[in-house]
Amino acid sequence: MEQKLTRLKNKLNAIYDLKHTAALLEWDQQVNMPANGNEERGDQIGTISELAHNMFVSEDIGQLLSELQTESSNLDPRSDDASLIKVTQRLYDQETKIPVELLKNLAQLTSVAYPYWEKAKESNQFSVFQPYLEKIIALTRELAQCFQPYDHIYDPLLNFYEPGMKTADVKQIFDELRPLQVDLIHDIAHHAPIDDSFLRQYFEPEKQWQFGLEVAEAFGIDWKRSRQDKSAHPFTTTFGQNDVRFTTKVLDRHMTSSLFSTMHESGHALYELGFNPAFKRTPLSDASSLAVHESQSRLWENLIGRSRAFWHHFYPKLMDLFPDQLHNIDVETFYRAINKVEPSLIRTEADEATYNLHVMLRLELEMELMEDKLAVKDLPSAWNARMQEYLGVTPSDDTRGVLQDVHWSAGLIGYFPTYALGNLISVQLWEKMRVDLHTLDDKISQGDFHDILQWLRVNVHQHGAKFEPQELVQQITGSKIDAKPYIRYLKTKYEEIYR
Amino acid sequence: MEQKLTRLKNKLNAIYDLKHTAALLEWDQQVNMPANGNEERGDQIGTISELAHNMFVSEDIGQLLSELQTESSNLDPRSDDASLIKVTQRLYDQETKIPVELLKNLAQLTSVAYPYWEKAKESNQFSVFQPYLEKIIALTRELAQCFQPYDHIYDPLLNFYEPGMKTADVKQIFDELRPLQVDLIHDIAHHAPIDDSFLRQYFEPEKQWQFGLEVAEAFGIDWKRSRQDKSAHPFTTTFGQNDVRFTTKVLDRHMTSSLFSTMHESGHALYELGFNPAFKRTPLSDASSLAVHESQSRLWENLIGRSRAFWHHFYPKLMDLFPDQLHNIDVETFYRAINKVEPSLIRTEADEATYNLHVMLRLELEMELMEDKLAVKDLPSAWNARMQEYLGVTPSDDTRGVLQDVHWSAGLIGYFPTYALGNLISVQLWEKMRVDLHTLDDKISQGDFHDILQWLRVNVHQHGAKFEPQELVQQITGSKIDAKPYIRYLKTKYEEIYR
Predict the structure, then answer these.
(1) What is the average per-residue pLDDT within B102-116?
(2) What share of chain B is helix, strand, coil (3-state, %, to 5)?
């Protein structure tokens, strides 16, 4: 068995070299590439991805996996080797169960659909995108059907991002969460709105950039293993266990945008920088799931970055950097401003109290589309009705409504729920961390995040993709993914802010 | 035949995607990569290079090539398709005639040898590097012997960089050049030295950078297809026909270093940006040879960048940028300073009048090593004797003597002559260009390089690797690579400067 495992690992190493190389080609495209390099870059990404796919779905790996499945029956199922075999088998099934023809059609369709989505959004004409979305939904249904049997047609899509989770589980969690979150924002709506207009002053971009780097470094980012760059949309990407990079976008009149995106992406990066070195160049050197990934970004961005304790330490530094803009703003005013709740139309601009509602709406629409209960042509009115029901606002146009997100044009169906699940997990981890680390707030107030990062390294990061998200959360907190801690957190926080 | 050509091209396209991807991995390593990313980056470059090699030496390509060789006998040998077959066959022979074992041994040896060369150079102890260089020379002899029969054992090494050239040709050219260049610098030594101390003032790095970009843009660099970054050693690299990048190093007390390196690398980049679009993702989308490549960089750096006409236009701009440093330096003083001749120990710091002598010395030593006429242990004394003979200076230590260049530690034997051949070609092209473009100096004096770039595009760049260097030079200038124009150029230039 040892010899077969070594052979499997050697093959996986080369495949992960290719995957990380493709990630570099894409990062460079977003960050550095001269505009006209696009065409050949597309060829290169295509060639590398095809090679990685072909190497992975080779009969050789299939054979090794099936032999190892049998021979590894004596292994502790929680051992690294057993996990490697299990995770590799899951990925192998995902890549082999879908006919190459279908994958090609979907790739071609989404690349054709993207500019139509862009045009539809720009011109506020859903009908421009509608025929493409119809085809995307149809092909996505075909894609899901490759994974029969399932309890729900949405399950296989969800499982691309959340291994082992059922749509029914997610629905149950969200059904518990939704009414409480709707109530909360109704309550808040009865209080006087918070004035955060001072955040829209001009803040020198260079200083914003410097402050972001300082915060990332305080969180534990090591510049010998990471770097921050600028790109149109912030993201984090990984080229190896010691080379994880993230980006931000600096807006001169929206200081908090770049700052919280740096914290958010730092959280993602710290996760990727914390995988067990023994997992290098294998599928275990990856996140447990997208929701767990998002729990890391949200923990640093919201639970730490939007806390009083954090700003106790960092606000004086921010005032020193921006004396003209902030000299008559005290830390309490700043704290309330960055935690302002206001139901709005755009998911990516939503605050902590409303964000999950944007996500739930999308999940419900996706499920209905996949179940064939909702026709694509009826999507805009379904969207608007649900926005009114959950958030009390109705988009004046589809540009700021059903057309706002790029995801569906890229065939990313099943992805949205991971955002809300990540929020829930972040607070479950936070509650447990507060029990384990008694001096949490004191340390944050001193700008000292060492214990937090250590706790995350030990409990979350090091395991990489070894455990499925529900397993991991259960193992750390004693319960599966659960909405109650998040609700407790929101209530406590906002009752105090809007007292 | 059409079908086979298409199959060959498809395979070459994927291989060239891999080669350009490897180039990105290496560029990123020099320009952006966090320090600790090194280990996995090495794995990635290894994996991609091995894949590219394996795809190229496949029996499939061998078979296609041998069938195409026969079937293409009716093709015009100067047609694109005939050239593609010929050039691909040459590269195929190069990669298949060397046993994989030998390639591996050499790669392993040079990667082990590099730190010993570094250490030897740092500590001025040739003996630390000597045993490794002995092995490198032995393996390089083996490498050359794979290409028997040949007129001279150095021929195959030279041919890696200069297809079709014979060692005897190079020797003949250099034998003509050497005495004339030695005489020239003896003459100059009798004149009063030029004072260029003002160039060693502090010049703000940011302004140096800006000025370099302005010059590169004036030369014709299009930032939609290129970019300049910073790295420890300046270089140019290509990721596709519309993405060619170069780097520089800015020294705050050595303004001309960064400026002339930007001009030099711009020349390389303009060549790579000018290949026929029909050659995309094939071996024809490459330089004719390293010497032709170097002719392009030297033409922009020296024939244009160190000319009076150039500074007539650009010196007022430079004075505006650096008024404190240059207010009492007139353009003539500046022109003489950047053209100062001074025999020195270090090749990379050598001026136009002495540079080739550094190269010739290296070629002679390499030939003697390969012929087994010189033992590695006697290299330092042979080096020093020849430095005294050609340049009238003797290194006080091996650090600034035989250990100065990295090339031998990397197994790059056969590479040095391309630098001097490039200088010669640059002047041959220049003489022809002056005949074709009557208003050359006027245009340069106006900062207008459009006609020059056009001439190079048509006569040199577009052909890519289609013609061997001697063919190309013959076709443009009517004669093969020739030392006389270079000698004429040096004499005229320096007699006037040191009149």
Answers:
(1) 92
(2) 70, 5, 30
ipTM above 0.90, yes or no: yes
As a whole number, the mean pLDDT across chain B is 96
Report chain A's mean pLDDT, rounded to a whole number: 96
Say which residue the tokens 């022809």 belong to.
B432
Mean predicted confidence (pLDDT) in B438-455? 96
**C-alpha B365: how far from its chain's center?**
20
Both tokens assigned to A244: 């994880």
Residue to substitute from A41, A54, A246, A281, interface B, most B β-carbons within 10 A: A41
pLDDT value at position B151? 97
Query: Long-range contacts of range B131-139, CB-CB < 8 Å, 24 or more positions apart?
Result: B132/B409, B133/B376, B133/B379, B133/B408, B133/B409, B134/B376, B135/B109, B136/B106, B136/B109, B136/B110, B136/B408, B136/B409, B136/B411, B136/B413, B137/B369, B137/B370, B137/B376, B137/B413, B139/B102, B139/B105, B139/B106, B139/B109, B139/B411
Note if the bond before B149 is cis, omega within 30 degrees. Answer: yes
Instruction: Write out the two tokens for B396.
Output: 């006080």
Supply the angle between the helices B450-459 and B417-436 in degrees, to the nearest 10: 110
Q: Is B2 a catalytic residue?
A: no
Contact yes or no for B444/B265 (Cβ under 8 A): no
Q: So what's the pLDDT on residue B1?
A: 86
- CA gap A483, A360 in Å, rounded: 13
Contacts of A18 in chain B (CB under 8 A): 47-48
Q: What is the mean pLDDT of residues B223-249?
A: 97
Buried-exposed string A445-477: b where 16+ CB fall within 10 A, e elsewhere: bebebebbbebbbebbbebbbbbbbbbbbeebb
Question: Known catalytic residues of A?
Answer: 265
Q: How far apart are CA A49 and CA A47, in angstroms?
A: 6
* DSSP letter string, B90-103: HHHHHHHHS-HHHH
Per-residue pLDDT tens digits for A244-292 = 999 999 999 999 999 999 999 999 999 999 999 999 999 999 999 999 9
- CA dist B262 and B249 (Å) reads 9
Inspect the interface and report whether the beta carbons of B37 and A13 lie closer than 8 Å: no
Encoded amino acid at A441, one letter: D
Residues 252-311 of B with CB under 8 A from A: 280-281
Q: Where are the domains of chain B?
A: 1-97, 151-499
pLDDT higher than 90, residue B499: no
**Residue A199 carries which side chain, given as an amino acid letter?**
L
Q: What predicted TM-score, i.e. pTM, was given to this entire model? A: 0.94
**CB-based contact A40 B14, cutoff 8 Å:** no
Residue A499 has what pLDDT?
Answer: 81
A1 pLDDT exceeds 90? no
- Backbone angles phi and psi of A498, in degrees to 5: -100, 35
What letter would DSSP give residue B397?
S
Reply yes or no on whether the pLDDT at B446 is more than 90: yes
Q: What is the mean pLDDT of residues B409-415?
A: 96
Q: Is B32 on the interface with A (CB under 8 A)?
A: yes
Quick one: pLDDT at residue A155?
98
Supply the pLDDT for residue B460. Answer: 98
Whether the predicted pLDDT of B281 surpasses 90: yes
Please say whether the beta carbons of B16 and B282 come within 8 A. yes
Q: Which CATH number fits domain A124-499: 3.40.50.150, 1.10.10.10, 1.10.1370.30, 2.60.40.3580?
A: 1.10.1370.30
- Is A383 within 8 Å of A401 (Cβ atoms)? yes
Query: Is the preceding omega at residue A149 within 30 degrees of 0, hence cis?
Result: yes
Total residues found in chain B within this entry: 499
Among the CATH numbers 3.40.50.1390, 1.10.287.70, 1.10.1370.30, 1.10.150.130, which is that of B151-499?
A: 1.10.1370.30
* B240 interfaces chain A, CB cutoff of 8 Å: yes
> Is-contact B205 B250, C-beta < 8 A?
yes
Q: How far off is chain B from A24, nearest CA to CA, in Å?
A: 8
